[in-house]
Amino acid sequence: MQVFEYPERSQWPELLQRPVLDTTALETSVGNILAAVKQDGDTAVRRYAQQFDKVQLEALEVTPAEFAKATASLDAALKKAILQAKHNIEVFHKAQQEHTKVIETMPGVQCWRKPVAIEKVGLYIPGGSAPLFSTILMLGIPAMIAGCKEIVLCTPSNAAGEVHPAVLFAAQEVGVERVFKIGGVQAIGAMAYGTESVPRVHKIFGPGNQYVTCAKQLVNKSGVAIDMPAGPSEVAVLADETCVPAFVAADLLSQAEHGPDSQVLLVTTAPEIIAEVQQEVAAQLAQLPRQDIAARALENSRILLVKDTAEAMELLNAYAPEHLIVACKDDIAVADAVVNAGSVFLGNYSPESAGDYASGTNHTLPTNGYATAYSGVSLDSFVKKITFQRLTQEGLQQIGATIETMAAAEGLDAHKNAVTVRLKQKAQS
Amino acid sequence: MQVFEYPERSQWPELLQRPVLDTTALETSVGNILAAVKQDGDTAVRRYAQQFDKVQLEALEVTPAEFAKATASLDAALKKAILQAKHNIEVFHKAQQEHTKVIETMPGVQCWRKPVAIEKVGLYIPGGSAPLFSTILMLGIPAMIAGCKEIVLCTPSNAAGEVHPAVLFAAQEVGVERVFKIGGVQAIGAMAYGTESVPRVHKIFGPGNQYVTCAKQLVNKSGVAIDMPAGPSEVAVLADETCVPAFVAADLLSQAEHGPDSQVLLVTTAPEIIAEVQQEVAAQLAQLPRQDIAARALENSRILLVKDTAEAMELLNAYAPEHLIVACKDDIAVADAVVNAGSVFLGNYSPESAGDYASGTNHTLPTNGYATAYSGVSLDSFVKKITFQRLTQEGLQQIGATIETMAAAEGLDAHKNAVTVRLKQKAQS
Question: Which CDD domains does UniProt cross-reference here (chains A, B) (predicted)?
Answer without folding.
Answer: Histidinol_dh (cd06572)
